[in-house]
Amino acid sequence: MQLNYSVIIIGAGPGGASVAARLEQHGHAGRVLVLERYGFPRPKPCGGGLTGHVNEAMAELDLTLSVPHWPADLARVRFGSFVRTVRMARPVNIVRREEFDHSLVEQVRAKGIEVAEGEGVKAIEVTGDAVTVTTSLGRTLRCSVLVGADGAASVTRKYILANARTLPHRLFKMEMALPQSRSIDPAMLYDFTPMVHGIRGYLWVFPLPGRRVNVGVMHYPTYRKSGIELVERLRSGLAELGLSLPARGARGWPAWGYHPRAPISRPRVLTVGDAAGIDGLTGEGISVAMEHAVVAGDAVDQALRTGDMSFSGYRQAIRRAVVGRELALDRWLARLLYEKRGQGWRKWLSLVLYDPDVLDMYAARVSGSEILADQKLRLYRALLRHICSLPGRNRSLRQAMTEMYSLT
Ligand SMILES: Cc1cc2nc3c(=O)[nH]c(=O)nc-3n(C[C@H](O)[C@H](O)[C@H](O)COP(=O)(O)OP(=O)(O)OC[C@H]3O[C@@H](n4cnc5c(N)ncnc54)[C@H](O)[C@@H]3O)c2cc1C
Asked: Which CATH architecture has domain 5-68+95-165+257-326?
């Protein structure tokens, strides 16, 4: 049977649009189809922080930031009464995902890529010589390679991982107006205070253009937390900051953390972005999706040129790239900070808060001004300093909590 396309990409979020852009750079534009189940602009729950190495990825993919955005050059970390603000070496642009994703799709269309909106993929079948996808419009399409850029609820991920069972990270967010009485805070706030209440993650408040803020909470799956509980934590955390979360409108989403050994491809099929795994420490993944896409686009181009459709080296190629090294390091840090049951998190949070260098490293990680995975010596030095200063730092942490909550 004849092939309809060389490559079909499922999903037109940042991951899918970026793979399409990379394939256009390799000269495949006319033989690529992107299938997206929704029409653009479509809603996407997200903090909208273009963190990490997103600027480098967009430049490499020849994509531009052409939507309204807030360039935040301050990051603030809070825990109880402790607050520290760090100036980032370069600003993090905060966007509305509805606008950002739409603009990426328009850009790849302008490059000659076919994007079918409102057509979801229902089923995938891989045979020796092709992949067949069945769509929600009843079409049956055949291609040489299938790229799953279909986000956290990925059908491609399910096909690759079959019966694997792990708990997802959970993120809830909402965009809201700032009260007129309140001045605009230009910093990106990461508030770890909810960890006292069993959240393994943080609450964020990110500024947006037009006196608006993007607020949310990220929870690592050490403990199961219901959506209602997470929204209540968001509400009470914002109340401490003098912000009132509207009664309705917070939207949540699951996301799967990156694992360096988890399969992300099978013959003729590979995944990028959320379908392959987000950053375990921050729950962020826009940059991850775009960086994955560069590696994926190159792997697909090579497969089409050589005829080797095994993608057996793809997981390692991701792992060796800057994105994989950063993800592996963040996974390790996330396990230290979030996976300890009981009060074990305190000694790692006090490292983040009180070490003179770790917050700067965190800010560099958020803004992508440095590759944190290349700073291992700096990290080890911080760990050594921490071991020597642990009793004093734990006292400071307890004090920051008691000042805020009168906890013992
Ligand atoms: C509340 C929240 C806040 C976040 N904040 C941040 C942040 O501030 N910064 C950051 O970097 N990351 C953040 N993230 C993570 C970020 O949103 C994702 O990592 C990012 O969207 C991943 O891009 P993607 O292209 O892989 O997936 P998505 O953006 O989810 O795109 C996947 C696309 O595939 C489509 N699709 C799915 N299934 C099918 C199908 N069967 N057929 C056709 N199409 C399909 C979907 O409709 C969607 O358009 C946040 C996530 C959440 C939930």
From this structure: 3-Layer(bba) Sandwich (3.50)
